[in-house]
Amino acid sequence: MDKKQRPMTTEAQLKPEHQIEELERVTIRFAGDSGDGMQLTGTQFTRTAAVFGNDLATLPDFPAEIRAPAGSLPGVSGFQISFASTEIYTPGDRPDVLVAMNPAALKTNLGDLKPGGLLIVDKDEFEPTNLKKAAYETNPLEDGSLNGYQVVPISITRQNELALEGLPLSAKDKFRCRNFYALGLVLWLYGRTLDTTIKWATEQFKRRPDILEANLRALRAGYNFGETTELFRVQYRVPPAKVPPGVYRHISGNEATALGFVAASVLSGLPLFYASYPITPASDILHELSKLKNFGVKTFQAEDEIAAIGAAIGAAYGGHLGLTGTSGPGLALKSEALNLAVMTELPIVVIDVQRAGPSTGMPTKTEQADLLQAMFGRNGDSYVAIVAPCTPSDCFFMAIEAFRIALKYMVPVVFLSDGYLGNGSEPWRIPDVSELPKIEWHYAEPQAGKFNPYRRDPNTLARPWAVPGQRGMEHRIGGLEKSGETGDISYDPRNHHEMTLARKGKVERIAQDIPPLQVTGPEEGDLLVLGWGGTYGSITSACENARKRGLSVASAHLRYLNPFPANLGDVLKRYQKVLIPELNTGQLALLIRGRYLVDAIPFNKISGQPFKIAEIEGKIDEVLGLRDEYVLEFTRSAGVSGG
Amino acid sequence: MTAPTMPNDGLISPDLPVLTRKDFVSDQEVRWCPGCGDYSILAQMQKMLPELGIPREQIVFISGIGCSSRFPYYVNTYGFHTIHGRAPTIATGLKTARPELKVFVITGDGDGLSIGGNHLLHAIRRNIDLTIVLFNNRIYGLTKGQYSPTSEFGKITKSSPYGTTERPLNPIRIALAAGATFVARSVDRDTKHLEEMLYLAAKHRGVSFVEVYQNCNIFNDGAFAAFAEKEVRADRMIYLEHGKPLRFGKENQHGIRLNGFTPEIVENAATDDGLLVHDAHAENITLANILVGMDYPDFPVPIGVFRDVDAPTFDQLVQQQVEEAMARGKGSLEAALRTGETWVVE
Lengths: 643, 346
What we know:
The structure holds two protein chains of two kinds.
Chain A: E1 19-22, E2 25-33, H1 38-52, E3 55-61, E4 76-84, E5 97-100, H2 103-109, E6 118-122, H3 128-133, E7 150-154, H4 156-163, H5 171-175, H6 178-189, H7 195-204, H8 209-228, E8 234-237, E9 246-252, H9 253-268, E10 272-276, H10 283-290, E11 298-301, H11 305-317, E12 321-326, H12 328-344, E13 348-354, H13 371-376, E14 385-387, H14 394-409, E15 413-418, H15 419-423, E16 425-429, E17 476-478, H16 493-509, E18 519-520, E19 525-532, H17 536-548, E20 553-558, E21 560-562, H18 568-573, E22 575-582, H19 587-596, E23 601-604, H20 613-623, H21 633-638
Parallel strand pairs in A: 1-8, 2-5, 5-6, 6-7, 10-11, 10-12, 12-13, 13-15, 14-15, 19-20, 19-22, 22-23
Antiparallel strand pairs in A: 2-4, 3-4, 9-16, 14-21, 18-20
Chain B: H1 6-9, H2 38-48, E1 59-63, E2 78-81, H3 87-97, E3 102-108, H4 109-115, H5 117-126, E4 130-136, H6 171-177, E5 182-187, H7 191-203, E6 208-213, H8 225-228, H9 230-236, E7 237-240, E8 247-248, E9 254-259, E10 262-266, H10 286-292, E11 301-308, H11 314-327, H12 333-337, E12 342-345
Parallel strand pairs in B: 1-2, 1-3, 3-4, 4-6, 5-6, 7-11
Antiparallel strand pairs in B: 5-11, 8-9, 9-10
Helix pairs in contact in B: 2-7, 3-11, 4-5
């Protein structure tokens, strides 16, 4: 530790000796009222762990209400981080440590804490009013109900107040620094420095020196408390992970998405135009891209979802990278215009950061239930390409892929992210720009005689991209059926048949141009666990664990959903059984069964939360006949089927 | 990274060919009903376009759905027949991405004010440099005769056999309320006036909105005949001209004056004293709002330019922000990937 960061008020000789214990992996959940700054606390801890060199994964979990009534159960906001000295894929099933800033946070999160887990609570908040708001009849700190845990009640509110005494801030502003007290304490507990947080806060509050001072005092007070008291006998160490050499940063899925589309612009040399209507959990992409005007990016906050996709189509028609982004309800609104892009064969990309539906659903909770909407949710026989990133950083690469495909095949592409990927984060080895794929495209070439806007490339079936400004190629397009070649309006029966097959065919031909599906684990065997999207981490970990137990289980993850990789049919045949875990009621399973006539076993969770590793392992054991029927834990008490 | 306008560099031709009306006639057979007012609008547009001095390939017509929205097929420029009500959105994306293009939006009373009302409002309030022409025939023609948002109260149509129970919108009032920087009205039968309005609208920098009273001789024949027919026009319409007193009548003998905020007719006004003088350049829209309230049979119907003011355009402001950001330092992907905290693993 840097000496400068040493707590100034602590006499070294008075410090108790703390035992140091080394751990491979730790999962911490910070939980408090949505006004308590838990997302910031979690993010700061994450940055520190990332810079230290741990592998990590995070799961922010916050209410849709910006400020639900203070202290209430619906107002609880949580942030879970798992960090390790080994490679990890998920934010952890159950936390080892729960920091609960009030009774409501304890009530809503205690059920997830591991038996015997460490429970740090702000005991000052456990007073009658707050207990009542959390529907506690007795104080859980006193009634013995927490006996199964290592409870560390700390007077966080009061101590924070004392640390900030004399600062010219309101009581409310001081109260809001408690999260930094808790952060300082947890940073001490895991032997971390305060450097990263101090650096961040100094930059963040450079115009508010009073707020900076208060936060730093709170942070150091929490840290010192850990160091000087004997409440904690043990201090933990989680050594850095062994990861490939390179320059790393910490990145969320939505950040990676924004950067990926900027990269697509750089790699293609075409300006990016992003049109979007604010919607949770996709808005961050708009925020990120609107800052990047120095890349020639134009962003447009449209009057509604339809206008956003309309504008993206207009930009694509004009020869730029037309991009729009939304979440499920917005995709529904965009479906008619998406079909216009299908009919006019314009290369737009539509981002859907999926959230729990239907209708408004649960905006801040994750789900993978828009796959069939993306695939089929339009009138007529309508084909679009679909890609789906599988980790937060994979959003970067799949964004580039989305435009590579769109421009080469002149086809709309749907990019299916989800709330878990978009808000979740991980350390990322920054790629070398020179290693990124080039994106090739060309505007229409002059044709002899009259220009034919629907004369297709025989290989890709792409039609020429003739953009306004190109002389001699003036032409008219629209949503009415076009005559092949000329693009004139046509009601000819044979033409419609052929044009429909051409639009379908060009999406199918993309399969010649995407990597084959990779299998992790045995090349053939008892079970293949097939997934897509944000379930990658839990599926990969569960299958690794199963193989460690000697089971013949492989995993494969689809990043291309339309078309599927060309080898998917072969891969499916090499295993006795195929299990498809999804955060929906079986959408990929339906497609796989329909397409390949494989009796895939669906495993479905629709709770707004990602899969736990143990859940997938439980189901694997059931499918392999190693246990009775596996039922998702949260459905057991309710008596409903886990699917 | 190349400049945002890069793809246009090889595309926009520097020379301005001399074009004629014929250059703007496409090879498509025009399929409106014989006698439709749309023919006149198409003809005046094709006559006017060469006067703009813009090469064909830099002009784009974007339409929604409805009879009027067939328009782009018949003009030999770039054209996009989009979906119902959404033409302003596609035009906004195109014009924002490519501000150097001349973009027209062709819409109707149903397309622009019913299903696409929201987009029309927002395109206008942004003052994006589009020329929007709204064909108002006060009926749904393509779907064969239902009432539209501009149909008169009580109108009997296929979907209102007992008369409508809805009050109509006034398109000019909507445009003014949304802050349109150019607002005009014309009528299909007055070809010379129509051509002039289209020209002025096309030359305006910023959003220009032109309502054209258009006869649907199949489903709403004679909708405007009472005041727009040649024989009665002089007495029942009033031509707005900036800086001139409001006068009408065969001999230009009548005038309009204000009584408070209420207009009234001055019959046989001997002098211009006290007559309302039109000011299309006023920032304040009160006068334009008073004029738009004048309607037949109580008043002559005003046609001409209601409002013509200058204001920064959305597309240019967006372009300017991008250019300024790039002038401060073009983005480097390497640097962007390394934003925030980074660390090295050996």
